[in-house]
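Lecture 7 notes: from sequence to structure.

We start with a single chain of 128 residues. Read the sequence below before looking at the structure.
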Amino acid sequence: QVQLVESGGGSVQAGGSLRLSCVGSGRAFSSYVMGWFRQAPGKEREFVGYISWSGSGTATYYEESVKGRFTISRDKAKNAMYLQMNNLEPEDTAVYYCAGSLNLRGYDYTQPFPYNSWGQGTRVTVSL
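Now the structure, written as tokens:
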């Protein structure tokens, strides 16, 4: 199982930017999905986006409200994934979690279920 550690959270004013990092340790997989989820106070954990890779290439997918503002990237050599967040809004305030899963057919990676590795979370606060 992969161990994941997030970093990069903090407080920022609306319109600002933050970059979150998620570094994995343990075995590296040639076919894998790494996702970002967030959980605001009093709300359920929600999907933000994911990056997947396999022999067919790399793909990203985003939740509608973050499209055009958030970008997920990966550094294979560092076994790391990043979430670049621009034009942040107060509604983006949450604890952000990264998650990892083998890249398997038939699973919905916008849901928490397929992921079996989770980080501890990093807090993002966006103020007006």
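The first strand starts at residue 3 and ends at 7. Keep this in mind for problem set 3.
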